[in-house]
Amino acid sequence: MLQTRIIPCLQLINDSLVKTVKFDNHGYIGDPINTVRIFNELEVDELCFLDIRASLQNRQPNLELLQQISNECFMPLSYGGGVKDFETAQRILSIGFEKIVLNTNAYRDNGLLRKISEHFGAQAVIGSIDVKKNLWGKYQAYVNDGTEKIAIDPVEWAKKLEGLGVGELLLSSIDRDGTWAGYDLEITQKIASAVNIPVIANGGAGSISDIGDVVHKAHASAAALGSMVVYQKKGMGVLVNFPDKKLVEAILK
């Protein structure tokens, strides 16, 4: 296993695997179960599934699909989307997921995050922060699939999430999502230097060198991949894949 985790971050809308660009214009990728089987063969470090419209559409997690994913998957799993209460989180963890990702409902209900963390341990909770620059270049945090701006600075929100008991942070750049333009190194570095928990950088990866940059220059503890692991190349068709681990190891030295 690589010392720096490289994590496919897979987007769901209910039972379909999709991929967005800047949190919009999603394209259909395929069946999540078949995708899990491919990643099993590729021996990836772990998988993250996010039902990106669940909170926005006020939907519960698709527990039947999550059970199927857990049954098929050989590596650690995390899930986010529509987790509004402790019982739902407990159910997802009981069927084989190791971590719950909380974004909208971490903001809505700090007590939910704290309760999950206290019961299952900080390692079972990932705080998710979606960020975007405004017209004046200032970073702002969003919930509800990037549709609702919240009145707290992203760096301060990261610190608060750490204090509430999350074990790591998933930092997603709305501006970079699906662009293949590289991670947002500036906000990643700001948040990674402000907290004492791992930061998973997400949004924009287009090459192995982008992974090296976000780890070495912005001090991310892990790199999430979206487009890179579901498309052949930018502008080309669907192909579930994973970067050559020897090449990744070489650039992370």
Report the span from N to C terminus: 14 Å
* Strand content range: 25-35%
CATH H-tier superfamily? Aldolase class I
Number of domains: 1
What is the number of helices? 10
The helix/strand order is EEEHEHEHEHHEEEHEHEHEHH
CATH architecture: Alpha-Beta Barrel
For this structure, the CATH topology is: TIM Barrel
| Mean of residue pLDDT values | 96
Q: Roughly how much helix do the residues carry, as a percent range?
A: 25-40%
Shape: globular
Structural class call reads alpha/beta
Q: Using the CA coordinates, give the radius of gyration.
A: 16 Å
What does the oligomeric state look like here? single chain
Extended strand count = 12
In the CATH scheme, the class would be Alpha Beta
Biggest β-sheet strands, sense, barrel: 8 strands, parallel, barrel
Poorly predicted parts: none
* Biggest β-sheet: strands ordered side by side in the sheet: 1-4-5-6-7-10-11-12
What does it look like?
This protein is α/β, with parallel strands linked by helices. The protein has a single domain (5-252), classed as TIM Barrel. It has helices at residues 32-42, 63-72, 86-94, 104-108, 110-120, 154-164, 185-194, 208-216, 227-230, 245-252; strands at residues 5-13, 16-21, 24-30, 47-51, 77-80, 99-102, 125-133, 139-143, 148-149, 168-173, 199-202, 222-225. Strands 1-4-5-6-7-10-11-12 form an eight-stranded parallel beta barrel, surrounded by five helices. β1 and β2 form a beta hairpin. α1 runs parallel beside α2 (63-72), α6 (154-164) packs parallel to α7 and α8 (208-216) packs parallel to α10. The longest helix is centred in the N-terminal third of the chain and has 11 residues, at 32-42. It is globular, with a radius of gyration of 16 Å.
